[in-house]
Amino acid sequence: MGVISWIILGLIAGWLAGLFVNKPTTGLFQNLALGVVGAVVGGFIASAVFGTGVTGINIWSIFVSVVGAVVVVWAYGKFGGRS
User: Which of 59, 65, 82 is CA-nearest to residue 20?
Assistant: First the structure.
């Protein structure tokens, strides 16, 4: 999967994660950036657990990326955000 695909998938995941987590301390652009990181994190975790991670822009990859992005956005809001 190319870098552009990772970025697009991460942006989608970050946007969806922002809707799920709904933290007022994180803005749209911050969620999008954290979504890119979350897509990578989710891909590595899914690859380790299920044997397949992010394989392209499809339903499985979006699910994995959104789960990773939700974890990253939540963790940022909990531990790295403003108090």
Answer: 65
